[in-house]
Write a structure and sequence with these properties.
heterodimer; A: about 375 residues; alpha/beta; Alkaline Phosphatase, subunit A; 12 strands; about 35% helix; globular; B: about 450 residues; mainly alpha; 2 domains; two-stranded antiparallel ribbon
Chain lengths: ~375, ~450
């Protein structure tokens, strides 16, 4: 159990469900005949669902998240989206990452947040992406973000197995890149960037050995990613924003077996993560935002569902006032968007603004490019 | 061959291609620079790449296939400038798979860029305007007589030829009207028929045949007429010249900054622009002047390697990917991780180059990829360089600097400071015992230097 000396700083974990999660099959309007009529092949059996109101139920595979909901830790945000939403994965995800629905943006809302939090770049671990490459959401020129594909084997020269050999190579690298500083703008930049890599690797290298937990996460990618978040967060590295992705939600076909599997993996991983944080007395300050780029088509296609709109989101945390937020998109066919999709009722930028201001204490307008109505999911107005 | 000549030819091949191995360099020793440059500009041979064989191993229409196919060509072509020029135009006419979702038309666009990339700018722009990928990318299929869509008209002027400040909004409107009807035949749907490419169609009934005024000239202009006028403009010559300089000579400001920031070498731009104008946009002629110029020859290591250049350079060094195999690593995805997803630039403005290619995560990926590649002694050239007795016997009991120089022979022109060299010698002495191990370790050290990130 780690004892923390620093004051707890609010931390945001953004969990992206990649592919377009079928919201209607996650939070199910189980008493509405339209659900069953629209989904002749895929509708979840009414007897299997886990109701929590007279009209809505959790998908049975999402039981772990319902457990958290019953503990009052989950805000379900119904029907998020934006005007003229895109049904292209790439475009829709870019829009969610950059908050630029019209022109194409290349810089991300979280990159802007990291810059605001740590403008002097004092901590190269202020923003951490779990996975290789960097999502556009965290990209902003000049803002260092650590991309941790493999926490147990992070950094440079990872292909060299012999520890002493590798250590010599890292010392050599440090020398080369430190010497480069001061010999011109390009060398300077290379030199500093090289040293940044070494700094983040140095900071992270003891994290695995310091971590102890009784929680046993499942053996799947999302569980492993959240465990990495837990390991870094409980090691007090000063990370304020984590980014994690769960893929596979683009269920055009075989949604029957696949969507429940994904929901179970997701729910269990989030539940285990919350337990782990609690065990380390590191849960109060953490907010998890789970989102997806769009919802899916009202009618199934016989095997799955095609791209739609009105995906939902979840905000999870110890400080959350659990419950339903926004409105469930109207199910009457006369109100379907473009005659085939769920309408949105909450602008996604309002959700972002909510966590930016109420979790991270930042002014959201320059980050989401505008003023959007926020929700009030925190018990005390914000995590204080 | 003198070392000066070696270094110059290596520089030429890094810029006009993707690098050169020691053996390739030796094969050129009897020819002079001008001859070598000429054979790049005007190859008398075909590329030597048997893509049908490659396609037997990797077939399909997924965009991963097309990227990896292109990388295969870059590694193995006998005419590297062809591929480099296609990459140059891909940078400029940035068209992205993410909107198209039709990988085959992206592959066809790249083939077109390769085919016409060294001809003249007029033909290049005409082919581009008829390219279905480009038409869809910039919405020209929505550009109708009576209700024009200005996206292509605007970007043609702003990003593909003249640059902001050299035309006005009316010019954009009229250019757009001239391109009405330039559309494509809707292909059959991917589901269930498969990826059949769209083909260009001039829709006579949707074209605005009326009078237009464009850059001071008036007539019933069609798209080709607009292009003719564009190519004549001094602004076009300058814009293309700056692009060529930024890509082939030295890292410059990003395009949006060009109006505020003059070129770093104005005389070089003047020369290239003048050549462009005099030759009516003959790209081969302009490149001939560029490759033979003093400003080019003295620009060694003044560019940061793009991810593609970095990856292909390592592949040439190690000798891998010279033949297709059943399981080929996905080099295209490696490029994506490093910030350059071929066939999918982030926006029509293309990739930001120079130092903007790099951040800590990307630098990590680059160094790790290079080190891991040269550590694998089963790779053809790594084996040749480090394990082959004939090559290495003379180095047994040699001093550190001799072995180091032998390894540096694979990197002509790369220069490491004395202090850094001494440090590298110490590292290798500590790490290794026999000659073969030392060679591998020296290679690992060299590819992890800051200098190796540059070209």
């Amino acid at each position: 159990m780690t004892t923390t000396v620093k004051a707890k700083e609010n931390t945001l974990v953004v969990l992206q469900l990649t592919g377009g999660n079928d919201f209607m099959d996650t939070i199910i309007p189980y008493t509405n005949g339209i659900y069953y009529d629209s989904r002749p092949t895929l509708a979840t059996d009414q007897n299997d669902v886990l109701p929590f109101t007279n009209e809505l139920a959790f998908h049975p595979a999402f039981a772990s998240l319902k457990k958290l909901y019953d503990e009052d830790k989950v805000a379900i945000i119904q029907g998020i989206g934006y005007e003229n939403s895109s049904r292209s994965h790439f475009r829709a995800m870019d829009i969610m990452h950059t908050c630029e629905p019209i022109k194409i943006g290349t810089q991300g809302w979280l990159g802007r947040a990291i810059q605001e939090i740590d403008p002097q770049k004092k901590n190269v671990l202020t923003g951490v992406n779990i996975g290789r490459g960097l999502p556009r959401a965290m990209t902003l020129t000049g803002v260092p973000v650590a991309s941790v594909g493999d926490l147990d084997n992070y950094g440079l020269m990872t292909s060299i197995e012999d520890a002493a050999y590798r250590s010599n190579m890292l010392d050599n690298f440090k020398n080369l890149y430190t010497q480069a500083i001061g010999s011109g703008p390009v060398s300077d930049f290379l030199g500093r960037t090289g040293n940044d890599i070494l700094s983040s690797a140095e900071l992270l290298k003891d994290v695995p050995s310091r971590y102890e937990s009784t929680v046993e996460y499942a053996n799947n990618p999302i569980a492993k990613s959240l465990r990495d978040v837990a390991r870094i967060h409980t090691a007090d590295m000063g990370t304020r924003i984590f980014y994690v992705q769960h893929g596979g939600y683009d269920t055009h076909a075989d949604q029957g077996p696949n969507h429940p599997r994904l929901l179970k993996e997701l729910g269990d991983a989030v539940y285990d993560f919350m337990q782990d944080l609690k065990e380390h007395d590191a849960a109060e300050e953490v907010t998890i935002l789970i989102f997806t780029e769009f919802g899916r088509r009202m009618r199934d296609n016989g095997s799955g569902t095609d791209h739609g709109a009105g995906g939902g989101a979840f905000i999870v945390g110890e400080s959350i006032n659990g419950g339903l937020y926004g409105e469930y998109p109207p199910l009457d066919p006369s109100e379907w968007q473009d005659g085939e999709n769920l309408k949105f009722t909450v602008d996604f930028r309002g959700v972002y603004a909510t966590v930016l201001e109420q979790c991270l204490g930042l002014d959201p307008e320059p980050m989401v490019f505008g003023s959007y109505e926020q929700l009030k999911p925190y018990r005390n107005g914000s995590t204080e | 061959m003198t070392s000066e000549k070696c270094e110059l030819i290596a520089h030429l091949y890094r810029r006009a291609g993707f690098g050169i191995t020691k053996d390739e360099l030796s094969a050129l020793s009897s020819r002079n620079y001008e001859e070598i440059a000429e054979s790049l500009l005007d190859p008398s041979q075909d590329s030597g790449v048997n893509i049908d064989t490659w396609r037997r191993y990797h077939n399909g229409a997924h965009h991963q296939i097309y990227r990896n196919e292109w990388i295969y060509k870059m590694v193995n072509t006998r005419n590297p400038l062809e591929e480099k020029m296609a990459l140059f135009w891909h940078h400029v006419f940035a068209t992205g798979q993410s909107k198209l979702e039709h990988p085959t038309v992206m592959g066809i666009q790249i083939d077109m860029l390769r085919r016409v990339g060294m001809t003249n700018f007029r033909d290049i722009l005409v082919e581009l305007s008829k390219d279905p990928a480009m038409i869809y990318w910039l919405d020209n299929s929505e550009n109708h007589n009576g209700s024009p869509n200005e996206n292509y008209g605007r970007e043609l002027l702003e990003l593909f030829s003249m640059g902001v400040g050299n035309y006005d909004e009316d010019d954009i409107k009229n250019a757009s009207r001239a391109f009405t009807g330039w559309t494509f035949n809707q292909p059959v749907p991917i589901y269930p028929h498969g990826d059949y490419p769209a083909t260009f169609k001039f829709d006579h009934d949707d074209h605005d045949f009326t009078e237009k005024t464009f850059l001071g000239e008036t007539g019933n202009f069609n798209g080709e007429d607009i292009i003719d006028i564009i190519v004549k403009q001094p602004a076009t010559a300058r814009f293309v010249a700056r692009h060529l300089y930024n890509f082939f000579v030295a890292d410059e400001y990003q395009v949006p900054a060009w109006n505020e920031n003059p070129p770093k070498d104005p005389e070089a731009i003047d020369l290239l622009a003048e050549t462009f104008q005099k030759s009516h946009g003959d790209i081969t002629r302009v490149m001939r002047v560029l490759l033979n110029s003093d400003f080019f020859k003295s620009s060694r290591f003044k560019k940061v390697k793009s991810p593609t250049e970095f990856i292909v350079g390592v592949l040439k060094l190690t000798g891998e990917y010279s033949d297709p195999t059943v399981i080929t690593p996905d080099y295209g995805s490696m490029g994506t991780l490093m910030g350059q997803e071929l066939l999918n630039p982030p926006t029509v403005e293309g990739w930001h180059t120079g130092l903007e290619w790099l951040d800590a995560g990307i630098l990590s990926e680059r160094v790790n990829f290079a080190v891991e590649s040269v550590s694998d002694t089963s790779k053809t050239r790594v084996n040749q360089i480090s394990q082959d007795e004939n090559a290495t016997n003379h180095l047994n009991d040699a001093t550190a600097d001799k072995i180091f120089d032998y390894c540096m022979g694979e990197f002509p022109g790369l220069s490491i400071t004395e202090a850094d060299k001494q440090r590298i010698y110490d590292t290798v002495e500590t790490n290794t015992r026999d000659t073969k191990e030392k060679i591998v370790n020296y290679l690992q050290c060299i590819v992890s230097t800051p200098e190796y990130q540059l070209t």
